[in-house]
Design brief:
The protein is α+β, with helices and mostly antiparallel strands. It contains three helices and six strands. The protein has helices at 9-13, 18-34, 105-118; strands at 38-41, 46-49, 54-61, 64-71, 80-85, 91-97. The longest helix is centred in the N-terminal third of the chain and has 17 residues, at 18-34.
């Protein structure tokens, strides 16, 4: 039996609309195409971790998928609700995806950049 204080991916998916759960699974599939990663799950998010650090996170919500990704530059896109400096070399971007149509080449580009950050690309120079 799961500890009620323990957060898991399954617990985040429980009770969410089928469309939001499918969106989450497709988001993860995009990440899996880029390369291996691990998970760090908390109450607020499912974080995806690279070899050096966490680089993105996502959480299914009633009307889609909410999440964040880290990048070495500020990205601009209507799906990005905010982008702010996280450190001298990184920006954290918060996004909301409403449907599977939102999982396009732009999101794939964000995730490739974030994955590079997770592998330590922001530490070069």
């Amino acid at each position: 039996m799961d500890n009620e204080n323990e957060w898991t991916v399954e617990r985040h998916l429980l009770g969410q609309p089928a469309a939001s759960v499918e969106l989450y699974h497709r988001f993860v599939a995009l990440l899996e195409e880029i390369g291996p990663f691990s998970y760090a799950v908390s109450k607020s998010s499912i974080t995806f971790k690279g070899t050096q650090r966490g680089f993105a996170g996502a959480k299914p919500v009633r009307n889609g998928l909410r999440g964040y990704f880290d990048a070495r530059e500020r990205w601009s896109d209507p799906r990005i609700s905010s982008a702010a400096p996280f450190s001298r070399t990184l920006f954290v971007h918060h996004f909301r995806l409403a449907s599977l149509d939102d999982l396009d080449a732009g999101v794939s580009d964000w995730l490739r950049e974030a994955y590079a950050v997770g592998a330590g690309a922001h530490l070069d120079g």
